[in-house]
Amino acid sequence: MLTLASYLRDSWQGGQDPQTPLYDPTTGTPIAQTSTRGLDLAAALAHARAVGGPTLRALTFAQRGELLNQLSAAIHGARDALIDVSRQNMGTTRSDAKFDIDGAAGTLAFYANLGKSLGDRTFLLDGEAIRFSRSARFLGQHILTPKVGVAIHINAFNFPAWNLCEKLATALLAGVPVLAKPGTATALLSVKIVELWLEKSLVPPGVLQLLVGSAGDLLDHVGPQDAIVFTGSGATGQEIRKHPAVIAHSVPVNVEADSINAIVLAPDVAEGSDLFNMAVAEIAREITQKAGQKCTAIRRIFVPHALADALKAELVARLADVQIGDPALDRTQLGPLAGPSQQRDVLAGIAELGKHAENVFAGAAPQGGCFVGPQLFWSNAGLDAAYVHDHEVFGPVATVLPYDGSAQLAVQLVARGGGGLATSVYGDDQAWARAVLLGIAPWTGRIYWASSKVFDQGTGHGAVMPALVHGGPGKAGGGEELGGERGLRFYWQRTAVQGDVQILKAVLG
Ligand code: NAP
């Protein structure tokens, strides 16, 4: 069996036994193993600070952008091989693998362009110079400089390519070296991507390290200039925030966590209209894409009473048609979950959801492997629907909740999820839109508004665009990533500088 190593201090290093298995979820058989026991993680962080940081900070934004450009091109050039790896270790269909891998290359390319546009500087000014008196000889100016620590990226299992690259893109462009830890269950794809970059000698020493397996004592060694960006469950996010070294050094922690995302249909959506049909197609895609293992996937479907039966019937018909099985086959639309432990969690979640909502469709799953058929639930309990609003079942599962169509209740229902990453709203009425959009905005990181005019032009509910922020309040972790230049700010110190205008000009330009 393949034994994976971690890339630390510019070399591949294996951990001591016992090893943790990684599976091919289509068959349920182990295909690789990994361990981080005995690895010197304090030395790894020190290496990033001493070697990778100075190298990156000496590069201009344009040069850092060029590095990202090459990382992106390498992924694009090996696309088909990486799609195979994704299928082996995550059971993804070709289309689901592309969503992850093309998203990774695209996000790197986006930040490469941003680097080019930021040009030959190594740090940025923040806003205009500020005058305090009549004299123009003494001014104040905010500046943004890269932290001199390490960006520690702890990723979830569901996007081993995109999660690695979207975090890497912002940190490297900001000028901060990275130690990335992929979710162990699907780490093979992250390993292959880093191998690819190293084969092409794209990564300068100390700029990128990859920890493959458990985090071990990593967080014991964080320091005051480090920054942690975490994606995963809310419970792990809380553990990281509470870590004594994180608290002692005031290390900033960005958390992207569970999110009970929603779609709301407005009362003016007519059965059989383009907007209605588009909503049906989008919900079905959100349930099945990546077997529902998407942080942005729609879990709650709020639909006016008058439209609810029709929506349910259309969704059931679509889900019944979904081809579930071997992701290597072209006809397959829904592959297995990422591994045995993900399958156990999702089956337990479905059983619990079934105690609180009616299961109106349960797709059959093939025997063997880590398959779970698509599931649709129904609840008339609205705001009181226990479990539905509180627990994310991280698989091909969603619940229809009919409501009265009022803007007020729509806002309350979205908010009942406690804070989410993405909410889609379908409707044309502008007065209703004003109440709903402004009402749900404090509760959601991204709002996707579909109307009759743009029903065929949108980017889709689930796709995270690098130009827009990704993150959400409350239950979703309270974090924010991407969003163009906004995504770099997490890695910078903002400093207010006051003084002699001549000196400020000489230093700051
Ligand atoms: P998880 O169990 O919380 O693990 C996430 C990452 O944290 C993994 O790399 C894991 O390592 C690591 N980890 C676990 N315990 C740790 C600790 N004490 N200290 C440091 N690192 C630790 O989550 P998951 O099962 O991978 O992902 C599923 C969850 O992620 C879902 O709830 C989903 O909603 C959420 N998610 C959110 C977003 C978002 O953008 N908001 C995106 C994707 C997924 P091991 O793999 O080695 O255990």
How many domains? The number is: 2
Strand order of the largest sheet: 15-16-17-14-13-18-19
Total strand segments: 22
* Beta-strand content estimate: 15-25%
- Rounded mean pLDDT is 96
Proportion of residues in helical segments: 25-40%
Which fold does the CATH topology of the largest domain refer to? Aldehyde Dehydrogenase, Chain A, domain 1
Q: CATH homologous superfamily of the largest domain - what is it?
A: Aldehyde Dehydrogenase, Chain A, domain 1
User: Largest sheet, described in full?
Assistant: 7 strands, mixed
Q: Give the distance, in angstroms, between the N- and C-terminal Cα atoms.
A: 56 Å
Please identify the top-level CATH class of the largest domain.
Alpha Beta
**Helix run count:** 14
Spans where pLDDT lies below 50 across 5 or more residues: none
* Rg, alpha carbons: 24 Å
Please identify the structural class as seen in this structure. Answer: alpha/beta
Which small-molecule ligands are present, each listed once?
NADP nicotinamide-adenine-dinucleotide phosphate
